[in-house]
Design goal:
The complex is a heterotrimer of chains A (294), B (433) and C (288).
Chain A lengths: L1 H4 L15 H32 L4 H5 L14 H6 L4 H32 L5 H13 L6 H10 L17 H11 L4 H9 L4 H12 L1 H16 L3 H6 L8 H8 L8 H31 L5
Chain B lengths: L1 H15 L2 H5 L15 E7 L6 H16 L3 E7 L3 H13 L6 E2 L6 H6 L7 H6 L2 H4 L2 H5 L2 E2 L2 E2 L2 E6 L1 E6 H7 L8 H11 L1 E3 L2 E9 L4 H11 L5 E2 L2 E2 L4 H15 L9 H9 L3 E7 L3 H7 L4 E4 L9 E2 L1 E7 L5 H14 L2 H11 L6 H5 L1 H9 L2 H8 L3 E2 L7 H16 L5 H23 L1
Parallel strand pairs in B: 1-2, 1-3, 9-12, 14-16
Antiparallel strand pairs in B: 3-15, 4-5, 6-15, 7-12, 7-13, 8-9, 10-11
Chain C lengths: L1 H28 L2 E3 L6 E3 L3 H8 L1 H32 L6 H13 L2 H11 L6 H8 L14 H25 L4 H9 L4 H12 L1 H14 L3 H9 L10 H11 L3 H29 L7
Antiparallel strand pairs in C: 1-2
Helix pairs in contact in C: 1-13, 2-13, 3-7, 3-10, 4-7, 5-11, 7-10, 10-13, 12-13
């Protein structure tokens, strides 16, 4: 188990005494032997989603029918899209999640730096106050926030889905932990070179915590991309609504789900995220090669 | 970042220009309609049976807007029944309700408690509503002889059965009484050694309190009055004992979920299912076998509670809007629209005249199952229209679940639930003063 | 010093408007009879809190929440840590594994909930098929008040391990690799490297994940909402769902606020406890 779960890191440069090739191969294969079935287990619901999205309604629960559809029914996809203006929803989802992320990255970077590297009175208390955001159950604040947004004249606008999430206690906490991991020699050296706090933050800290920023980014995007209850409450017009509301139409409450189209809808909603993740998780790895930490 | 937000706001407002007109509907401020001014109405609705309903409703609204000068309706999809109710109530709380909405009929007292509903008795009497609406459907929006909504998409639970399974077990017709139901469920249950292969019966979970009220009605009891529930009456206890007996005999599932139970039926994991008439189209077209539909079996009589909802009109809006809202609600429930809506969704048309439409007669020939629910509605009434109905429902569901799981005896469970809910109703009524 | 406050200001403005104000209002509401949809509120004093003590369901819900949190979170984190360590390499195929374990996080909860309702189906669900195949008894899962909550917990591990894995992976990238090299040259085994190098070095992140994971257990709301609505027999009702039910379904904002405040105090206490114990042991690379 130990050897399998912890493969030797393979640094790009300066390897001491290369090991025999067969041992490395054995290691890799042992890892695959363990991970492949596990990954398959994890993937099975996704496979089911994809397969079901191509079935006819009668095939889904027919015990006599095979696992795969007799002939893939690709028309489920256009038919799903016809239920609601998914194109508009997609654009809105992109605007909402991207704006939230951009705002959050600014607010959390500034706040996390203060908490990680500066000393000031009330630090502990303020940090707890930041965490309050994560601790308080969201349904207990819905009503008040709805009233606040209405007073601001924002109900039924795109910003209504953005402003409550601009500050992130979660992101601040996450980034603070990473900032505190950055060796202080690095910032000391920069300070000796005459850099101010902002320059140190920008040139020393941010490049080093890129993995954390990306991890936070992915998580923030996923959260707000899939948010359903809040957008449903604060929006009315089709022109400003987001993808999960379209999906909600297919998970109809009264009569049992429209499985093929619900799964087609799920695939449609998830695909942009999945593609983004595959791209970013490459960058996630690449970003370390240049940081000099590893 | 902040500049991005305000830019967006401005752009949004310029683009839509929607928010402004509705701000005028503030409490007490009646804005008389000037001539030639278009009255804008918001209509919030849930989608219960199929995503396509969204398209159907959009088309209906488009047609209405095209044929009615001076009125413009904006249709707002608001999620499930629960979501719709919450969205409307939240809007009511800030004094900006939509002009009309479509909630579940049990919420009548909730909205009356908020003084949110326009009394439409007089308009309805002047019109043909009282003559042409099927009585049981009309009643779901009546409180103390006043009418507060036009029934739009009523449903009742019905008994669905798997015709293949019936043929296999040699059962020729659907059970008509509780005893026959029990016998049929036993005969239809399939076991492989200890492992259960097929249940005889599943009662759709999540709404099993709705079915339970049907059982009470079949046993001669309407288990609630305006300000209390009566689940501790012998008729009701007997109904729960009957359920318990079926569970103990191993032919009925002790619990289920709403989506899960529909799946179980389609997959052949249960031979019979209590589910909404609203599910008819889905079950009929998605099951790989022929689906039968029957009345829920009777004890003393047939009986069912109505699900589905009426279109309600907000009290807190200008007279011009109220008038336009009436026009719209009336149009949505006219003979042709009801007939078309019923065929498209499986909900029941509310008008007698709709059922006589040639298209409808044709449809009933094609899908005779659709008529069953219609006929059963003759024996149906409103569903649990008490204040705090939502908590009442959850309390009853919990009591039923715990009984069927064997944690508590039927009578004790119902007694506790009744006391708890009646206390809660009293608390809510006290507030109303 | 002023710089620090200036840096916190942008966050604090938004937190004040959309977090602190609602919390203050919720404290105020909890002392009143507040009906959703009705602008009038009536003073009650402590009545909402006293109701809470007598509310049988509240205690059950509290128990469910504690049970869920105490098992699901540690389990997800252990799974996530093992996955992260295994996948922290540049070997071929790692990208696929990472995606395979992370994608559940991306599935909208409505859809994920519905898929698992299918997987758990007693009659034809693949999970029961698998159980029978290895000779175990079939379970009724979501239809059985004993197994419904564990069923949701298993699903939560599937859904969230990838989430914690990603955060831990990011942390592992910060661990200087020369430490491993040195250890390996000294003949330290993989298991010991994990215990004595990896875990201490990622401890700040692990600490973060434990705290966030605990708070993240709020997410169970989505699955309860989609899959069981708290049933059967309240066996899957958890605090966040109960707060939602009271506030939005029962319109009882006063009572929902009281519940939320109790939850807040409870969580603050829990986090305080974690900070006092685990927080002290955390080793930050950047601090000597």
């Amino acid at each position: 188990m130990s050897d399998a779960t912890h493969p030797a890191p393979v640094p790009a440069v300066s390897r001491p005494a290369p090991r025999p090739r067969w041992r490395k191969l054995a290691r890799q294969n042992a890892l695959h032997l363990l991970m492949a079935p596990l990954a398959l287990l994890w993937l099975s619901p996704l496979i089911w989603i994809l397969v079901t999205s191509l079935k006819t309604n009668t095939e889904v629960f027919d015990q006599a029918a095979g696992f795969l559809p007799a002939s893939p029914k690709f028309s489920n996809y256009p038919s799903t899209l016809s239920v609601a203006p998914f194109g508009t929803y997609l654009i809105n989802s992109v605007i909402v999640t991207a704006t939230i992320l951009a705002c959050q990255l600014v607010t959390i970077t500034l706040a996390a730096y203060a908490f990680a590297r500066l000393t000031f009175p009330g630090k502990g208390l303020l940090f707890t106050l930041f965490l309050l955001q994560v601790m308080f159950p969201i349904y207990a604040i819905f009503l008040t926030n709805f009233v606040t947004l209405r007073e601001m004249g924002l109900v039924n606008t795109i910003p209504a889905m953005i402003v409550p999430f601009v500050a992130s206690g979660y992101g601040t906490f996450m980034l603070r932990q990473s900032f505190r991991q950055v060796p202080s020699e690095l910032s000391d050296a920069a300070r000796l070179d005459g850099c101010g706090h902002m320059a140190i933050l920008w040139h020393v800290y941010l490049p080093l915590v890129k993995p954390t920023l990306i991890a936070f980014g992915i998580i923030s995007v996923v959260t707000h991309w899939n948010d359903y209850m809040w957008p449903l409450l604060v929006t009315n017009s089709e022109g400003i609504r987001t993808l999960p509301i379209g999906l909600g139409l297919l998970a109809k409450a009264d009569s049992g789900a429209d499985w093929p189209r619900l799964m087609a809808g799920t695939t449609i909603v998830v695909s942009p995220l999945l593609i983004l993740f595959v791209i970013f998780q490459r960058r996630f790895i690449d970003s370390f090669m240049h940081t000099g930490v590893k | 970042m902040k500049s991005t937000i305000s830019n967006l706001t401005r752009r949004r407002l310029l683009a839509s220009g929607l928010a402004a007109p509705f701000v005028s509907a503030m409490p007490g401020v009646l804005t008389p309609a000037r001539a030639n001014e278009t009255v804008k109405l918001q209509f919030m609705y849930p989608v219960g049976v199929s995503g396509d309903i969204n398209t159907i409703i959009s088309n209906m609204i488009a047609e209405f807007n095209a044929t009615h000068d001076g009125i413009e309706v904006e249709a707002i999809y608001a999620g499930s029944y629960d979501n719709t109710e919450q969205k409307v109530i939240t809007a009511l709380g800030v004094g900006e309700p939509p002009a009309l909405w479509l909630p579940i009929n049990s919420s009548l007292q909730t909205f009356l408690g908020l003084d949110a509903l326009e009394d439409i008795t007089e308009q309805a009497k002047a019109d043909d509503i009282y003559d042409d609406f099927i009585g049981g459907f009309l009643d779901t929006a009546v409180s103390e002889d006043r009418l507060y909504g036009l029934s739009f998409q009523p449903s009742t639970p019905v008994l669905y059965y798997n015709k293949d399974a019936y043929a296999e077990a040699g059962i020729e017709k659907a059970p008509e009484t509780w005893d026959e139901l029990f016998q049929a469920a036993k005969a239809l249950t399939v076991r492989d050694g200890d492992a259960l292969k097929r249940w005889g019966l599943i009662i759709g979970g999540g709404w099993h309190d709705w079915m339970f009220e049907g059982y009470c009605r079949q046993n001669g009891l309407v288990p609630w009055e305006a300000d209390k529930v009566l689940w501790d009456r012998p008729e009701s206890v007997e109904a729960l004992e009957f359920w318990k007996a079926m569970v103990d005999a191993g032919c009925m599932a002790p619990a289920s979920t709403w989506q899960g139970s529909a799946n179980d039926f389609m997959a052949g994991s249960t031979a019979m299912l209590y589910h909404s008439t609203g599910s008819l189209t889905n079950l009929r077209t998605s099951s790989p076998f022929e689906v039968g539909v029957a009345f829920m079996p009777k004890r003393k009589q047939f009986g069912a509670s109505q699900g589905g909802g009426p279109i309600m009109i907000a009290k807190n809006q200008s007279d011009a809007k109220k008038e336009a809202s009436w026009t719209f609600a009336r149009w949505m429930t006219n003979t042709e629209n009801q007939a078309a809506w019923s065929r498209a969704t499986g909900y029941l048309a509310v008008r007698k005249s709709s059922w006589e439409q040639p298209e409808m007669v044709e449809y009933l020939k094609e899908v005779p199952q659709a008529e069953v629910a219609m006929k059963q509605s003759e024996f149906s009434g409103a569903f649990l229209q008490v204040p705090a109905y939502s908590r009442a429902r959850d309390t009853l569901k919990s009591a039923i679940d715990r009984t069927l799981a064997g944690e508590v005896a039927p009578e004790a469970a119902l007694k506790d639930a009744t006391a708890e809910v009646n206390r809660e109703i009293a608390r809510v009524m006290r507030r109303r003063g | 010093m002023w710089l620090a406050y200036a840096l916190l200001l942008p966050s604090l403005i938004f937190l004040a408007a959309f977090t602190y104000w609602p919390i203050l209002r919720s404290i105020w509401f909890s002392l009143h009879d507040v009906l959703l949809g009705d602008p009038d509120i009536y003073w009650l004093g402590a009545e909402n809190y006293l109701r809470l003590l007598e509310d049988r369901l509240f205690w059950k819900v509290l128990g469910n929440t504690a049970f869920y949190t105490m098992i699901t979170i540690p389990l997800s984190i252990v799974v996530a840590l093992l996955l992260a360590v295994a996948l922290d390499s540049k070997l071929r195929g790692m990208a696929i594994y990472r995606s395979a374990f992370f994608y559940p996080v991306m599935i909208p909860s409505v859809a994920a909930g519905m898929v698992w309702v299918f997987l758990y189906a007693p009659g034809y669900g693949p999970i029961n098929e698998a159980l029978t195949a290895v000779g175990l008894p079939r379970l009724d899962w979501l239809y059985d008040s004993t197994w419904a909550l564990p069923a949701i917990m298993i699903m939560a591990v599937w859904k969230y391990s990838g989430y914690f894995m990603l955060i831990l992976l990011a942390a592992l990238k910060l661990v200087p690799s020369d430490l491993y090299e040195a250890a390996r040259l000294d003949g330290v085994s993989g298991w010991q490297r994990l215990l004595h190098i990896t875990i201490p070095l990622v401890s700040p992140t692990l600490y973060f994940v434990i705290i966030i994971g605990t708070l993240h257990s709020y997410q169970i709301f989505d699955y309860v909402y989609v899959m069981t609505q708290g049933g059967p027999a309240d066996s899957t009702n958890v605090l966040t769902f109960y707060i939602y039910q009271n506030g939005f379904q029962y319109q009882d904002i006063g009572y929902a606020s009281a519940l939320a405040n109790v939850l807040l105090v409870f969580v603050l206490g829990l986090i305080g406890l974690v900070a006092m114990t685990l927080g002290r042991k955390v080793h930050y690379l950047g601090e000597r």
